[in-house]
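User: quick one - fold this with zinc ion bound?
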Amino acid sequence: MNVILLGPPGAGKGTQAVRIAEKYNVPHISTGDIFRKNIKEQTPIGVVAKSYIDKGQLVPDEVVIEIVRLRLAEEDCKNGYLLDGFPRTVPQAEALDSFTKVETVLNLDIDLDLLMKRLTGRRVCEACGESYHVSFIGDANTCTKCGGTLIQRSDDNEASVNNRLTAYTNQTAPLIAYYKEKGVLCNIAAAGKIDEVFGEIEKALG
Ligand code: ADP
Ligand code: ADP
Ligand code: ZN
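Assistant: Sure. Structure tokens for the protein plus zinc ion:
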């Protein structure tokens, strides 16, 4: 099962990815999570990535492509993978096609107007990556799944979100046509409740 989650920032990729990985037993590969881990550990990749991520800009293609190429070569990806947040540009998608066969692209389809609220109210578990929203949890700061601490991402502020939405429109949205033409695109209505969206994904994955 070689699956990609496509969608604008805040569409629910991370939220759904955790559920898909659990049910279908595939590794969840989030390029955003990989960058955040590198930033925390102050690796050379982390230092480069931070300057882009803080501004809400995409990290250069050559950096992210190499990371994903190496990750997909690992043993646990032998029977499939779930990519969350990659590819985000046409050159990334072309590179991916040169080293793996993408079977299904789940396109989380949502009105961009809904996303500012989702992102500025997002809280994420530092330990397991689960996403929460202040409208559901208030000011609770403990993950109900693992007991980890909930934090606000430094790029979930209004200025960075505006740049990320622009980057999505200009650089990532063209991937919808790219994958439609290849016959692997599944549109998933992503404005409903988390369980409803997951139900649609289950139908699409069979
Ligand atoms: P992405 O990984 O696409 O950026 P997340 O999965 O982190 O998005 O979700 C962004 C925010 O929206 C989080 O605060 C999350 O709790 C919330 N969220 C996710 N899915 C839904 C949904 N179906 N309805 C309402 N809020 C949602
Ligand atoms: P979101 O929840 O906004 O969808 P992610 O956690 O997927 O965000 O990514 C956070 C940031 O990491 C992005 O705004 C971007 O700067 C960088 N990033 C993640 N994946 C990629 C990618 N495939 N190409 C370029 N930059 C990326
Ligand atoms: Zn957790």
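One thing worth noting: Residues 9, 13, 31-32, 35, 52-53, 56-59, 64, 85-88, 92, 164 surround adenosine-5'-diphosphate (ligand 2) (CB under 6 Å).
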